[in-house]
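hey
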């Protein structure tokens, strides 16, 4: 079939169809003749090859819309969505920061997008160089000695890291090390990743300061412990002050330390996991290093390791021999490939561009992220309960317990925020705080925006005291009002109704 596209029309085997709504063509690109009888190239009919009973009798029924109509449809759908371009997005632990649009431009440069992943190293020098240079930058920010860029998300980085730890102990013959210790405040992906590698999870409680209880840790440490997975700052937004003591204990026990670096926004340039004694780290490029995310990706979860674990990285590793950049498949104890081709390459381009653009200001970004979180925390505590009243890092966790007793749960507060053009914070996580609201403003927002959010939160608290019904009927301004979540789960309606 020979298809020619010209302005406003499309010609298939000499049969013209128009794309102009004014012409009645409504954008259809399949001429009626083909649409019904299945004419193929050179006038041959499908009917010459297929039995009559299998041939379509009715037109195929393709949607016939003009380009403008299609565009308006999708624009209207996107208008219903909430995004960082529309308003404040304090979704804790997700780091919904500003993602410079110039990164999108760079990630779509022809040389990057048109490079086929199966082309050999010689043809891919530019992309390999970018990856190599990104690895070098990530080595600096994490303090690690080697990096893989393959994993496609934070959780995938965790899985990769735990596979490395497992293989390391297997190679050393320490197959008894089956336990992984994980604090009760951890992100749910931590135990899931360790479990998928075949480890047994040992939960460790947080103490009254929201930090890992070191005395409890001493009690559960034995020769069967492979590693501890920690997030620092932890998911309460608190810095684990005894982390050096913990790494000392772990290493003396022959165990390793895994650092969940999804929330790296808190510490960039100020400290790093190597200084804290960690052996394996993952980063979320789509959180800290400016790739738009939400709605499921794409992401990238590079993993960094100390020198003694370099030979366990997924292969190929991306290396430089002084002249050429190349993919090295000769990695002695490699856990194998964890992702096809190069990983999510576009995300790597964005991260590299962001790091170059920021330079030493990465440090400033972390300082501002921490300052912004502390500012909101101080203004809201008292009205909302602050279970761990300590200086926080890039985020903090409030409890809506008081408001819950007045008749409105945290879910109600979250819904009410939507009426003020504000995305709700992360709610009901971490699990150790009742009615949790986890707030992360990021460094991107101005004091005016923070003040507006604080004002809204205080207004909602007052509404709950005076007229909880008003809050319970929210949201009122969103395209979809309060949904019946039980019904939605039991009888999902998955069709679009315009
Ligand atoms: C987001 C997050 C993860 C998981 O990252 P994904 O890219 O969503 O898989 C893991 N740990 C923490 C602390 C996180 O905030």
């Amino acid at each position: 079939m020979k298809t020619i596209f010209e302005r406003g029309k499309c010609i298939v085997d000499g049969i013209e169809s128009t794309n102009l709504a004014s012409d009645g063509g409504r954008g259809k690109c399949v001429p009626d003749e083909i649409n019904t009888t299945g004419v193929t190239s050179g006038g041959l009919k499908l009917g010459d090859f297929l039995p009559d009973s299998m041939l379509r009798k009715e037109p195929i029924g393709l949607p016939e819309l003009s380009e403008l109509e299609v565009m308006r449809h999708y624009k209207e759908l996107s208008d219903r969505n909430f995004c960082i371009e529309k308003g404040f997005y304090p979704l804790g632990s997700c780091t919904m920061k500003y993602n410079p649009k110039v990164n999108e431009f760079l990630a779509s440069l022809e040389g990057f997008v048109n490079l086929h992943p199966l082309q050999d190293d010689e043809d891919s020098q530019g992309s390999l160089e970018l990856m190599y240079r990104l690895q070098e930058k990530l080595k600096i920010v994490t303090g690690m000695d080697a990096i893989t860029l393959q994993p496609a998300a934070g959780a995938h980085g965790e899985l990769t890291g735990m596979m490395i730890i497992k293989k390391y102990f297997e190679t050393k013959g320490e197959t008894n090390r089956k336990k992984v210790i994980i604090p009760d405040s951890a992100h749910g992906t931590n135990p899931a990743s360790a479990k998928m590698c075949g480890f047994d999870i040992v939960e460790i409680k947080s103490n009254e300061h929201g930090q890992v209880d070191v005395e409890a840790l001493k009690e559960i440490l034995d020769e069967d412990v492979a590693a501890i997975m920690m997030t620092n700052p932890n998911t309460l937004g608190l810095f684990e002050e005894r982390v050096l003591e913990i790494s000392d204990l772990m290493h003396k026990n022959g165990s390793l330390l895994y650092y969940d670096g999804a929330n790296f926004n808190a510490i960039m340039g100020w400290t790093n996991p190597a200084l804290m004694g960690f052996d394996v780290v993952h980063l979320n490029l789509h959180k800290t290093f400016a790739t738009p995310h939400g709605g499921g990706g794409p992401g990238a979860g590079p993993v960094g390791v100390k020198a003694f674990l370099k030979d366990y990285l997924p292969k190929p590793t991306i290396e430089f021999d002084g002249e050429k950049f190349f993919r090295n498949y000769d990695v002695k104890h490699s856990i194998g490939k964890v992702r096809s081709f190069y990983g999510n390459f576009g995300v790597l381009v964005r991260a590299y561009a962001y790091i170059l653009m920021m330079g030493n200001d990465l440090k400033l970004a972390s300082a501002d992220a921490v300052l912004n979180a502390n500012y909101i925390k101080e203004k809201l505590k008292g009205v909302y309960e602050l279970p761990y009243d300590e200086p926080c890092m890039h985020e903090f966790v409030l409890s809506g317990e008081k408001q819950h007793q007045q008749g409105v749960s945290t879910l109600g507060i979250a819904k009410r925020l939507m009426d003020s053009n504000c995305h709700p914070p992360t709610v009901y996580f971490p699990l150790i705080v009742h009615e949790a609201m986890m707030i992360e403003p990021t460094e991107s927002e101005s004091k005016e925006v923070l003040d507006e959010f604080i004002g809204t939160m205080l207004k909602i608290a007052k509404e709950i005291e005076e007229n909880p019904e008003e809050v319970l009927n929210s949201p009122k301004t969103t395209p979809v009002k309060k949904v019946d979540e039980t019904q939605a789960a039991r009888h999902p309606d998955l069709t679009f109704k315009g």
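Residues 93, 153-155, 187, 189, 231, 235, 260, 262-263, 284, 299, 301 surround pyridoxal-5'-phosphate (CB under 6 Å). The CA atoms of residues 3 and 12 lie 4 Å apart.
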